[in-house]
UniProtKB/TrEMBL annotation:
It comes from the Bacteria. This is 4a-hydroxytetrahydrobiopterin dehydratase. Residues 117-223 form the Glyoxalase-like domain. PANTHER family: CONSERVED PROTEIN, HYPOTHETICAL FUSION PROTEIN. Pfam families: Glyoxalase_6, Pterin_4a. The lineage of its organism: Bacteria, Bacillati, Actinomycetota, Actinomycetes, Micromonosporales.
Amino acid sequence: MEQALSRRAASDAISDQGWRYLLGALRTSVPVGSLVQATEVAARVVAACGSDADGHLRADIRPDRVVLTLQSLDQAALTACDIDLAHRLSAAMRDVGLRTEPEIGTGAPRSVQLVEIAVDALDIAAVRPFWKAVLGYTDEAGADGPKDPIVDPVGQGPAMWFQQMDQPRPDRNRIHFDICVPHDEAPRRIEAALTAGGRLVSASHAPAFWVLADPEGNEACVTTWQGRDDS
């Protein structure tokens, strides 16, 4: 098993290639002109990964883009292999006149991102099995404790994690979305949310996360990898 990389090391190693670090994974987008071209891109990136494809690569194929995600799936973490694959995939796209990019400030509908659902709970070990069962989710690799996050085994739905409460809070929502965006996309996303009628509840933990609320007080967090620790 390879050593997992720190957040900073992973981000620094691939940012200039158009990839962004999001929640323990690398993600990028390849703009294309058709579904036919998208399938061709997918075939090229799988070939570029070679035997590492199944254990590291996920591709979401759409008529206008192919979204690529890299992670050492057996560890749910990033390793040197993922960094090498990111460079190889970016080079493979350049060879055919395409590019890997995070779609920040390009006129794209949005940047690359990952979404998590957070559930506030007094007894995480008690509520976690319900959500695991009702969603058809499973444990993340290497994280099967009674308070660990749960994930979609086929990688389509957002991960769910559980935030410890110290007392009941009946006067506020207890489920919220965490939208993990590239660190250089966060200011743009927050400004858009505020312009759309939202308000800033707290920036005390920025740039790890900002707490925002809609006009009725429902909360969401915009998160990045930065500001969490030195790694």
